[in-house]
Amino acid sequence: MANKEFKPYVPIDTNMKELTFKALFLGVILAVILGAANAYLGLKAGMTVAATFPAAVISMAVLRLFKGTILEENIARTTGAVGEALAAGAIFTLPAFIMTGVWSEFNYVKSTLLMLVGGILGVLLVIILRKTMVEDTTLPYPESRACAEIVKAGQGRQSGAKFVFSSIGLAAFIELFKNPNGILIIKDSVKGFLQFGLSKINLLNAEAQVLTAGVQKAEFSQKGGMLLQSPAASPAFLGVGYIIGFKLSAITFSGGLFGWLFLMPIVLFLMYNNLHPFAEAGGNWINVAASAYNSTVKPIAVGGMLVGAFYTLFKMRKSLIGGIARGFSDIRTSKGSKSNKIARTEKDAPFGLVLIAIGVLILCMIFLYHSFTAQWGSAILAAVVMGIAGFVFAAVAGYLVGIIGSSSNPISGLTLSTLLIAALLMVLVGMKGNPGIAAVLGVASVVCCVAGVAGDMLQDWKVGHILGGTPWKMQVGGMIGVIAAALVLIIPIMLLHEANVIGSDALPAPQAGLMAMMSKGIVGGEMAWPLVITGMFFAIGLILIGSPSPMLISVGMYLPFSTTFAIFIGGLIKHITDRVSKKRIKNQKDKNIVDNTGLLVASGLVAGEALLGIILAGLVVGNINLSQLVGLPVDFQGFWWLGLVIFLVLGYVLIKYPYNELIKAQSKEK
Question: In DSSP terms, which residues pair with 639 in a beta bridge?
Fold first, then answer.
């Protein structure tokens, strides 16, 4: 269908409430809540989930109570969903300031400014791109169209909000009793160390050497071992696995298998005689093995992520070039697109004002980067790199979202490209040490936020385009959502860091770890190159054999095994749900009912655990210990068998709810 023949759900000449206080107020609340929830998830699991669907459902449910219109719901969703996108940009980069040692603690003002500038730039830059990209019928926008159908189906009928809110409550209840900061009676996961028997392998002719020295053979014998872990009883991880599906969750889990059950036993075998004294002194092989993993396998995973990120961009090279070309062509065409009378659904924010705002933000960044480098030349260079990369990757992110949806937007790969360019330029101009690292991370932070917000905005504006929303009003909503999220988002990140320490097993933050290692390695000269290069060749090997997503495999190697295992269980539950429902599904409508219901339940599980996790972290910062308040023993770690019960309960919920909704829908049709 040609663009001129397109008819939105709400007719162009309709005069309907849209940009209202209640819509914006709800959107701001959703932006903060969904942003905080995804910040928690990203730090803990290394990935975020698109907030468009839960934001749409919650907006419909809440505004229906206040007799809100479909266009008000559209504004609330657009304003609220951007919080998740900004969170992705923040957690992929800002923790790197801590992990590199540039900051000893999070700087609220600088962190907020980086998010604020990146988020606002993301909105401003895609205003230029909106008309061409949103109205291009060759771009499928799969997630946008699915969301629009959910909104249409929700008019006059139930929205599905009960699934989101009930699963939020269930996940929060579970988290209260399994989080170490809560009332700990559920043991999250079980770990054990399996020590192997004596090995008779003669490494590097060591047997002859020790016998010549008069040392008994038994003293040199290698044992080694393997660290075994159960999946984490986490509603959020199971929800993530369910959302991304069986294939992607299996790919992520394969990285855990490579790292923990293939590479790690080799490391422990070769290093047994060196590690044995530490294990004997501490009396805990589990801790020794975990420490050895962090120092040996994680750098290998970083090398794999590096190659995986660039390979992802290489595979998308045609789309990337197309996105860049669109961006520059839109600048030329938008200047001559004025007409005497513009339809409501075609009105963007004033183009001249947008360009002025972009220029002002870039000038402001020069002063912020100067606070990092204390050199005006380096600050100007950093701002120029940020401005160019921001526009290019805003176009790229928007184009990729149009093809594959925001859930698959390779933000970390785009950011890593910027980081490497900025790092090399800083080295060339003589910026070294912490000032140079800070400048590099500052550029990467802004660009990451730009890419995340740009992709999310175009996805939401496409939904609005289908529904008949007014572009400039959606753009105002997106801007307000960005500002609200940016002002608040660093607070939950600070609370989580203070309660759990970012970079630990509790909050591994893999993407931020990658950014930290690359910036510190290039600018500071501290790269563990032998291990990183090993990981790079490992990823190249995966590419040569046609392995799917070397990036995801490497992320799986970086994350704790209990995390990837739980994500895999979630994907397995999705597979079971599909198999159980397959016999009853007769058409695409039936399939959409199962998929959408499961998506809403899983999204609620993610949000429920994340939100309560942040609340519990705040209690810890306030020196409130719930376990002590209820009288639990100080050394009590919970019952492991309750974790098994959690898996059974969540599996039942994720399979039964979608199946029941399908049965109900089919019975109504009869």
Answer: 186
Residue with tokens 């993530």: 240
Helix, coil or strand: residue 199 = strand
- Give, in order, the Cα–Cα distances in Å from 347 to each of 73, 340, 353: 19, 12, 14
What token pair was written down for 101?
């040692």
pLDDT digits (tens, 9 = 90+) for 436-488: 888 889 998 998 899 889 888 988 999 999 899 999 999 999 999 999 999 99
396 or 260: whose pLDDT is higher? 260
Task: Find tokens 């090997």 and name the residue.
Answer: 541
> For residue 109, what are the CA distances in angstroms to 41, 113, 119, 487, 490?
23, 6, 15, 9, 9
The string of DSSP codes covering 252-314 is: HHHHHIIIIIIIHHHHHHHTHHHHHHHHHHHT-HHHHHHHHHHHHHHHHHHHHHHHHHHHHHH
Q: Name the packing angle between helices 376-404 and 433-467 (round to 10°).
A: 30
Classify residue 374 by its DSSP letter: S
User: Looking at residue 639, what DSSP letter applies?
Assistant: B
46 CB-side CA count, 13 A: 28
Q: At CA 217, angle to CA 211 and CA 221, rounded to 5? A: 130
Neighbours of 253 (CB within 10 A): 26
Q: Which of 613, 607, 606, 609 is nearest to 496 (CA)?
A: 613
d(CA 45, CA 253): 12
What pLDDT score does 219 carry? 47
Residues sharing a CB contact under 8 Å with residue 356, sequence separation 6 or more, in sequence order: none
Half-sphere exposure of 645 (CA within 13 A, CB side): 10
Residue 257: which residues within 8 A CB-CB, separation 6 or more?
A: none
How far is 518 from 418, CA to CA, in rounded Å? 11
Q: How far apart are CA 303 and CA 514, in angstroms?
A: 9
Q: What's the pLDDT at 217?
A: 46
User: Could you identify the residue written with the tokens 């939100």?
Assistant: 611
Q: What is the mean pLDDT of the chain?
A: 83
Chain centroid offset of residue 183 CA? 28
Amino acid letter, residue 472: W
- Give, rounded to a whole angstrom, the gap between the first and last alpha carbons of the chain: 33
pLDDT exceeds 60 at position 218 = no
- What number of CA atoms fall less than 13 Å from residue 251's CA on the CB side? 15
The pLDDT score that the predictor gives to residue 2 is: 41
User: At 317, is the secondary structure helix, strand, or coil?
Assistant: helix
Q: Model-level pTM?
A: 0.76
What tens digit of pLDDT does each residue of 377-420 get? 888 988 998 888 888 778 777 776 776 566 556 576 677 777 87
The helix or strand, by DSSP H or E, that contains position 192, with its residue range, turns out to be strand 191-195
Q: Among 120-134, 329-343, 345-359, which stretch is predicted with the lowest mean pLDDT?
A: 329-343
Q: Which of 61-65, 214-218, 307-311, 374-378 has the lowest mean pLDDT?
A: 214-218
Q: Do 199 and 637 meet the contact criterion of CB atoms below 8 Å apart? A: no
What is the mean predicted confidence (pLDDT) over 175-187? 87
Q: 199 pairs with which residues across the strands? A: 222
Structure tokens at 490: 């660093």
The whole-angstrom distance between residue 610's C-alpha and the CA centroid of its chain comes to 13
Q: Which two tokens stand for residue 96?
A: 């790197």
User: For residues 273 and 220, is the Cβ–Cβ distance under 8 A?
Assistant: yes
pLDDT at 248: 86
| Helix, strand, or coil (residue 348) | coil
DSSP states of 37-69: HHHHHHHHHS-----HHHHHHHHHHHHHHTT--
Please state, in angstroms and as integers, the Cα–Cα distance from residue 540 to each residue in 25, 226, 545, following that order: 49, 27, 9
Q: Distance (Å, rounded) from C-alpha 460 to C-alpha 534?
A: 41
